[in-house]
Amino acid sequence: MAAHQEKKPEERKRKNTQNDTRASKVQWGRAWEVDWFSLANIIFLLMFAPLIVYYFIMSCDQYQCSLTDPLIDLFTGNKHLSDIWNKTPTLTYKAAGIYTLWVTFQVFLYLFIPDFCHKLLPGYVGGVQEGAVTPAGVVNKYEINGLQAWIITHMLWFANAYYFHWFSPTIIFDNWIPLLWCANILGYAVSTFAMIKSYFFPTNAKDCKFTGNFFYDYMMGIEFNPRIGKWFDFKLFFNGRPGIVAWTLINLSYAAKQQELYGQVTNSMILVNVLQGIYVLDFFWNEAWYLKTIDICHDHFGWYLGWGDCVWLPYLYTLQGLYLVYHPVQLCTGNAIGILMLGLIGYYIFRMTNHQKDLFRRTNGNCKIWGKKPEYIECSYMSVDGTKYYSKLMTSGFWGWARHFNYTGDLMGSLAYCLTCGFEHILPYFYIVYMTILLIHRCVRDEHRCFSKYGKDWKRYTAAVPYRLIPGIF
Q: CA 473 to CA 203: how far, in whole Å?
């Protein structure tokens, strides 16, 4: 989507307040009102998402990654909940120290080390960048230095592993459950702080949404872009750091543990590290582009992002590596190549689809997609302050095949991660099941918001591109 703005005299005179119902008609983002079905889902997630994470990690720690054996033990009376809980490692001072140092270091890299990678790496966009227009018409600036933080962090990790030996490379795996309690504390603390902040000292009151329902506001967030000071943006920091920077370190720790236990690192573990490492590096290489995605452009900051980025992402997105510590899988050459190709093709589709969209947006449609001038649908929308914006929705390239073809590539990569683990247990396949549900839900949620934002223009777009994920099927 490419966009520009136009202010008309009569639009400038419009008066808007935070809860003006007229303003809600021209705003996008999350809901102003909550239906009973959404509320039920919110309460379910608040109650059971932390238990799901605990159950998966406990199953690996106590039951060799079997998801059914704990339930069988409980139903047959072989064990009680108290027996499982008493065997679970507790929070330790060591884990608290590790996690505090980790988060503090990432905050330091985020706030105090200006990006220099964009000066050294051709094609990389870093440094101070502008985000998308918020519903209130604000354009925030961000210090893009995630790639730099990832490089510095991993240089120190490898320097320690091969030279300094300050700590064991298996330190993350060895403290995995105590670190889980630390991550939960941070996730709940930042989510609660963000909610309190939205009531008493919001960064931009016009970008706050109050439904009046405590559970929904806590889960989905009230403030659109909560910040402390000029540069510490909650959404950008917690979406990328500390969870995604840690993702590759967690996998490296799993590989180190496999080496320690079995004397070798299997090709399946190498595949997991390589394929997920490509995804993480892609995220940070394109961090400036990420400012235009749904997480930044539409989601408010609440428990969904705060706790999710601290706990759900690092613990459940890395299940394949964790599983391979307990069940080392050595793939035959043909299977390994097939999985690698599936992951790389999925990544290519994911990246090229997003590249086409980004190129189209940056050039305002004055570019070539697959050797031709792209086709698009002109549309318009309005922000709360009465500013009218014009956008172009592309219907060429991969975006002419399906409205969310980037998600299709994402799902291919997700399946490749899972296939590295073989078929002995279902636990590693939670990721592809979850990602399928998540991305289909995102399709529906994104399209609902786009319809609210663009109105009849969105109907024209869906008529031109009728499929969501798979051309000719769905």
A: 44
Contact 145, 231 (CB under 8 A): no
Evaluate whether 353 touches 409 at the Cβ level (below 8 Å).
yes
Residue 268 CB contacts under 8 Å (≥ 6 apart), including other chains:
324, 328, 329, 330, 331, 336, 420, 421, 422
Tell me the average pLDDT across 448-460: 86
CA nearest to 26, candidates 453, 350, 404, 399: 453
- Our separate counts of H helices and E strands in the chain read 24, 7
CA atoms within 13 A on the CB side of 268: 23
Taking every pair of Cα atoms in the chain, the longest distance, rounded to a whole number of angstroms, is: 75
- Total-model pTM: 0.89
Residues in the chain: 474
Amino acid at 280: V
pLDDT at position 6, please?
Answer: 44
pLDDT per position as a tens digit, 316-348: 999 999 999 999 999 999 999 999 999 999 999
User: What gap in Å lies between CA 208 and CA 198, rounded to an integer?
Assistant: 7
How far apart, in whole angstroms, are the C-alpha atoms of residue 441 and residue 288?
A: 24
421 φ, ψ to 5°?
Answer: -95, 0
Closest CA to 326 of 121, 63, 18, 128: 63
Torsion angles phi and psi, residue 131, rounded to 5 = -90, -175
3-state secondary structure of 304: helix
Is 329 within 8 Å of 420 (Cβ atoms)? yes
Say if CB 111 and CB 197 are below 8 A apart: no
Q: Is 260 helix (H, G, I), strand (E, B) or coil?
A: helix
pLDDT: which is higher, 198 or 446: 198
Report the C-alpha gap between 443 and 325 in whole angstroms: 34
